[in-house]
Amino acid sequence: MPTNSPHFHFCHRRLVEFADTDLAGIMHFSNFFRFVESAEHAFFRSLGHRVHTANGTEHEGWPRLEVSCKFHQPARFEQTLEICLRIDEIRTSSLTYSFSVFVAEAAERAPLATGACSIIHVELDTGAHKIRKAPIPPALREKLEATVARSEKTA
């Protein structure tokens, strides 16, 4: 599926480096998750937010609730991968997005991997060493909902 498709809300590119691969130049499966997380962080930054804040007064983050991935083809050394995200559900304190990973230069847009990730917004009480779920901040929720609404209009 082309990355300019309204199916995706955000796409991010990343090069497969030698450290991501085995001696045969094939990317280790666990690195797909690192690449998806990198795209997630870039998506939050594109909205003017961060996935982790610890600035003395605010301590918040987005730990994972559930992650799944289906591997279709290997990724290889020096390929540029395009990781595309789609917001599937926005709840009070959590959101779920699906992802597809493509070879950016490939003529055929068959995904190397597809999956989904559910994350939850939390506040961190560093003094008491506690983590508690917290509502998605209103400014971020507004941007997430606007992102979804824009893609629904173009679909």
What does this structure look like?
The two termini are 14 Å apart. The chain has helices at residues 29-46, 138-154, and strands spanning 10-15, 52-54, 59-61, 64-71, 80-90, 94-103, 113-120, 122-125, 130-133. It is globular. With 155 residues, it is of the alpha+beta class. A hairpin with a 3-residue loop joins strand 5 and strand 6 (94-103). It has a five-stranded antiparallel beta sheet. The chain has a four-stranded antiparallel beta sheet with strand order 2-3-8-9, with no helix packed on it. The chain has a single domain (10-154), classed as Hotdog Thioesterase (Thiol Ester Dehydrase, Chain A, Roll), CATH 3.10.129.10.
Which segments are poorly predicted (pLDDT under 50) over 5 or more consecutive residues?
none
Proportion in β-strands: 35-45%
Helix content: 10-25%
| Biggest sheet architecture | 5 strands, antiparallel
Number of DSSP strand runs: 9
CATH homolog superfamily: Hotdog Thioesterase
Average pLDDT metric: 91
The arrangement of helices and strands along the chain is: EHEEEEEEEEH
Radius of gyration in whole Å, from Cα? 17 Å
Number of domains: 1
Strand order of the largest sheet: 1-5-6-7-4
The end-to-end span amounts to 14 Å
CATH class: Alpha Beta
Q: What characteristic shape results from the CA principal axes?
A: globular
CATH topology: Thiol Ester Dehydrase, Chain A
Structural class: alpha+beta
- If helices are DSSP runs of H or I spanning 4 or more residues, what is the number of helices? 2
- CATH architectural group: Roll
Please supply descriptive tags for the structure shown above.
155 residues, alpha+beta, Thiol Ester Dehydrase, Chain A, five-stranded antiparallel β-sheet, four-stranded antiparallel β-sheet, 2 helices, 9 strands
